[in-house]
Amino acid sequence: HFAAQTPKHVTVANRTLERAKHLADKFHGSAITLGELPDHIATHDIIITSTASPLPILGKGLIERAIKQRKHRPIFMVDLAVPRDIEPEVADLRNIVETALALPDFSILAEAVVAADLATTLSGPGPFTVFAPTNAAFAALLTELGVTKAQLLADRPLLTAVLTYHVLGARALKADIVPGTQPATVQGETFSISAALVITDKRMRTANITAADVFTSNGVIHVIDHVILPAP
Prior knowledge:
This protein has 232 residues and is an alpha/beta fold.
């Protein structure tokens, strides 16, 4: 059934190369041994497993590395084996929202994402790049704006504009950042990033990228020490 959908390429893995070739020839595909599988996961969009192995053959670490190599393009996995071929922990790979919720220093950001009803969007396939302000960054913003946290979270239009100004609709690692570049945000406006990894927003305020390349299942997070703001 799957082969009838004319996939671009099919690779068959088996404990013996001979058996893999026998099946691969039916689909004009290529054959590898199970031992070679870790080197090929990242090059495939769909993984279907059905072995008689008593232990999982695909672990969380392997899949996590593959996702990074794929620059966070998703992998669709189907496990037909009993017992399972894929470790249950693979399901624990966290997306951007789940990562923020799991880190205490981003609790206000997580609250803000939920209050702005952006959790579903930022849990989607993406990929996204999020410049994530710490709790201290939000505390400084509250002082700057003269509002309480409750007031900020209740102002949904402002909150949505501010949060989406921190999000890019593509994955951008630290190595991808070109000094002086002005990436377009999901909010619609841009900001600039210097060679020193200093962000200048539309109000000429600055924020430092203090930690880069926090990988998630649907993108990457860069930690910043101030909340950036779009034009008034």
